Amino acid sequence: MFKYSYDSLVYFGEPVEQSIARLARFGYDAIELIGEPDKYDTKEVNKLLGNHGLKVSSICSIFTADRDLASPDRNGRANAVDYVKQVADLAAAVVCPTIIIAPTACMKMTRWKDPVEERKWAIQSIRTAGEYASSVGVAFAIEAWNRYESYFVNTIQQGLAIMNEVGLPNVE
């Protein structure tokens, strides 16, 4: 049977209790949470989900210039990996199976460095974060963005190539 989920990013800034109540009222099965771990009290989220009969289908990670898995800056990549680990902990706490991962920052429209290096950094960062996520029972889904959101990984084929190079069973 097909399950329906809705991305709460559409209602960005709305209290999660309102989003959960709305989705339950409209007959959804699950919610996709925004990947901002500090914005959630996981005990309260779990209580709301139980009260409304919903689950968390996935968490949409938010990658910025300060937390970019393909950043030429070592600290920027470390920041991104730490962020993904926090999102993995959030996912584990709300019994969410999947985090959506973008290999680079949203709205990064041009290369910062050599594309071979950026790809290498993205793969290393995803692998490091993916190993941690696996330890808490969470999988990654690599998201290909359209050309208006990023120049990097715009097709399913490019996403699959990254997935295969990462080489972890929890990275899809």
Task: Give an account of the 3D structure.
The chain is an alpha/beta fold. It has one domain: TIM Barrel (Alpha-Beta Barrel). The protein is 42% helix and 14% strand. The chain has helices spanning 16-25, 42-52, 74-93, 115-135, 156-166, and strands at residues 5-7, 30-35, 55-61, 98-101, 139-142. A five-stranded parallel sheet has the order 1-2-3-4-5. Helix 1 (16-25) links the parallel strand 1 and strand 2. Helix 1 runs parallel beside helix 2 (42-52), helix 3 (74-93) packs parallel to helix 4 and helix 4 packs across helix 5. The longest helix is centred in the C-terminal third of the chain and has 21 residues, at 115-135. The radius of gyration is 16 Å and the shape is elongated. The protein starts with a strand and ends in a 6-residue tail after the last helix.
Q: Give start-end ranges of low-pLDDT stretches.
A: none
What's the overall average pLDDT, rounded? 90
Q: List how many beta strands DSSP finds.
A: 5
Percentage of residues assigned to helices: 40-55%
Share of β-strand residues: 5-15%
